[in-house]
Amino acid sequence: MEGNLAIIGYGLSAIGPGIGIGLIFAAYVAGVARQPEVRGVLQTIAILGFVLCEQLAIFGIALAFVFSG
Fold first, then answer.
1. Rounded to two decimals, what is the model's pTM?
2. Start and end of every V-ATPase proteolipid subunit C-like domain (predicted)?
3. Domain 2-68 - what CATH class?
């Protein structure tokens, strides 16, 4: 029963990084639409933010497997 609860907990915790990634790329698209000449700088910042958000999700699934075993 504990393993099932850990995976359900991960599913709920993956909502945060999902929302964060959506907000990052929404801001990126809005920024490029306003000033297309700074696309390179904004793309670098957006990808860095994406990586940091995705690390939270990967860390969460690693903990879900640790606590389910």
1. 0.79
2. 6-66
3. mainly alpha
